[in-house]
Amino acid sequence: MQTNHNAPLNKLQSLFAQRVDRRTMLRRGAALSLAIPGVSALLAACGGDDEEEEPTPEPEPEEEPEPEEEDEPEQDEEPTPEPEPTPEPEPEEEPEPEEEEEPEPEEEPADEVSLPEGEPERPQSDFMAYGFNVAWRADEDGEQFNQWTLQALDTAGFNWTRFQIHWSEIQREPEWMDPLPVDRMLDAHEGTGVRVLISIVGVPDWARHPEDAQLLGDWESFANIMAFLADRYRGRVHAWEIWNEQNMAHEMHGTVRVSDYAYLLEAGYRGVKEADPDALVVFGGLTPTGINDPAVAVNDVDYLREFYAFEGGAFTQYFDVMGAHLNATNNPPETSYPDNPGPGEWTDHNSFYFLRGRDLHAVMSEYEDGRQLWVTEFGWTTENQAPGYEYGADVSEEDQANYLVNAFTVAREQMPYITGMFVWNLNFTTLTPPEDEKYPWSVLNSNWSPRPAYTALQQMPKP
């Protein structure tokens, strides 16, 4: 994705450290518990009647006898104690009602799926590959998700998908292969007419050079995995992009070395062509950056020039199509530096612009290379919560829609050597949370409904 290129180095290093891997599988769930205590009560009552006595006749008057003196009791005799009155029972306290436990709040139900509708403008020729970078699911319950993804792509009138797979997950051990996740995604493509570009990344630990003197311990290990994949998916995968943003250190396991990519590309090309000669091999798209620090990143134009010069250009034969990433921060696609700078802060280096593609093609022309160029990632983020993408606040949803459509026009008119464009991205909102950097680049909402950018691309003429 787009990076902060001409800022102080520590700011740039922080940005690159904050980037997020683009293959995110999320699972959603909900839990609910209720507790309803019982309530009891206690009641008591009592009562009685008195009878009237008959009158007694009055006696004749008698002399009243003198009262006799009562003998005092002897000292050693204890008086008989008078019985103590029975205390009235204290009223029983009514038990306090048990407090009802409040049930845990139910998780908000997911928004109802609202897929885009309408009849799109469709490509009028095979000159341009109209593609989306898509989020996909590799788990056994992902079939419906992948079908919705392809339905949304078709309703936009696009005819290519690009998604990423990890070598480290397919071949975790030298003799262990698990292609089932890729099988599932490609099964969803069957019968759709949609073509597939796969970007492969991620070296498994067992294949790394033990001392990190170079990327791989044996370059043939990559030739073997590419031959396996190209053979398994012959006719189903139409293009293989060898790596992704290899001018960034974290994509190359710590250090940017042009030699590493040259040997990797050569091995991958051999593996693909031996198994499926008709499949295209795409040079991995470089990220636009003005940095030149191999521990962080290398300027994409400088990197490409060094690749063409490496060992006298011996490795330039190992691709069919040049790949590029042209993410333009907050600048409209027709702007460039220094002739026609855009608005805002990110304007003083040409790596901030979609027209950076002209600089990459100029390097190809220096070496008389007339091959086509595919923009395998380009887009504009709206307001973005992730650090390093603050420029997205300058791009409204309407801006995003206009910039994406105008980028196709700019490519046709000013960079006619571009014959493939893959929007970043279609549907990462449906798998990632809003704070993920990939979220606001999407042209669909989290419930699959279209944002203005989707509708604009759907209605865009596609010559």
The largest beta-sheet arranges its strands as: 5-4-3-2-1-10-9-8
- List segments where confidence is low: pLDDT < 50 over at least 5 consecutive residues: 2-81, 105-109
User: What is the string of SSEs from the N terminus onward?
Assistant: HEHEHHEHEHEEEHEHEHEH
Average pLDDT figure: 84
Radius of gyration: 40 Å
Gap between N and C termini, in Å? 27 Å
* Helix proportion: 10-25%
**Would you tell me the structural class of the helices and strands?**
alpha/beta
Number of strands: 10
Number of helices: 10
Measured by DSSP, the beta-strand proportion falls in 5-15%
Provide tags for this entry.
alpha/beta, 463 residues, single chain, disordered N terminus, 25% helix, 10% strand, 8-stranded parallel beta sheet, two-stranded antiparallel ribbon
Question: Care to describe what's here?
Answer:
With 463 residues, the protein is of the alpha/beta class. The protein is 25% helix and 10% strand. It is built from 10 helices and 10 strands. It has an 8-stranded parallel beta sheet with strand order 5-4-3-2-1-10-9-8. Strands 6-7 form a two-stranded antiparallel ribbon. α2 links the parallel β1 (129-133) and β2 (160-166). α2 packs across α4. The longest helix has 18 residues, at 258-275. It is globular and about 50 Å long. The model is unreliable at 2-81 and 105-109 (pLDDT under 50).
